[in-house]
Amino acid sequence: MDATAEKDKLRKHFRALRTALSEAERRAVDGAIAASVQRLPQFAAADGVFTYLSFGAEVDTRRLIEAALEAGKTVALPRVVSGTRSMDWYAIDSLDGLERSPFGMEEPPADPARAVRPADFARPVALVPGLAFDGAGFRLGYGGGFYDSFLPDFPGTAVGLCRVAQLVDRLPHDAHDVPVGRIVTELEAVDCSER
Questions:
Q1: Is the CB of residue 109 less than 8 Å from the CB of residue 94?
Q2: Alpha-carbon distance 184 to 70, whole Å?
Q3: Dihedral (CA of 59, 65, 70, 72) sign
Q4: What does the pLDDT look like over 127-171, one tens digit per residue?
Q5: Are 65 and 79 in contact (CB under 8 A)?
Q6: Which of 95, 96, 97, 47 is nearest to 68 (CA)?
Q7: Ramachandran region, residue 5 (left: φ > 0; alpha: ψ -120 to 50; beta: rest)
Q8: 10-14 long-range contacts, Cβ below 8 Å, gap at least 24?
Q9: What is the model's pTM?
Q10: Alpha-carbon span 109 to 125, nearest angstrom
Q11: What are the start-end ranges of the H helices in the chain?
């Protein structure tokens, strides 16, 4: 089986696994993940938090966004650049006023005055989604390549948010795949550089 076919098979498996959790189970697990992220020294020290806004059965980021805003951190959400594998990032003050993308996700308005880059910050942190992660920090994404484009130049700490059932020993990855530096599950925070 080639890598693309293997990844597609794994995506189906992890989507089904994720969807099988009840809303109450997801809420409890995601609350534990959020608490663990907030205990990370990198998150506590971050001046810029680049995060996805959870969609569907993804690990919920709303409470982390609220906590970062309350702590006075700049929080940035991505907006997909049409026809590319790139994302532009915009600072938000709340989750109000977001726009629905063609993919059904909520995005910040494309306001040039609110545009930010990771390089604008001394201690940026990225919260990264994935269908699965492995112990080395490699992720199984959705196949769009957006984080494959974003992570190579990210100057701070990239943190994968993952329920423990979605953390595996090894995932197939390509030469262009960039691992995250840390993975946080409901049970542990894993430093991928130590593996």
A1: no
A2: 21
A3: positive
A4: 999 999 999 999 998 878 889 889 999 999 999 999 999 999 999
A5: no
A6: 47
A7: alpha
A8: 10/131, 10/132, 10/140, 10/171, 10/172, 11/131, 11/140, 11/142, 11/143, 14/131, 14/132, 14/140, 14/166
A9: 0.93
A10: 22
A11: 3-20, 23-39, 41-45, 62-70, 146-150
Q: Do residues 148 and 85 touch, judged by C-beta distance below 8 A?
A: yes
CB atoms within 10 A of CB 82: 8
Report the distance separating Cα 7 and Cα 13, nearest Å: 10
- At residue 136, φ and ψ (nearest 5 deg) are -85, -5
CATH of 3-194, one of 3.40.50.10420, 3.30.2310.20, 3.90.1200.10, 3.10.350.10: 3.40.50.10420
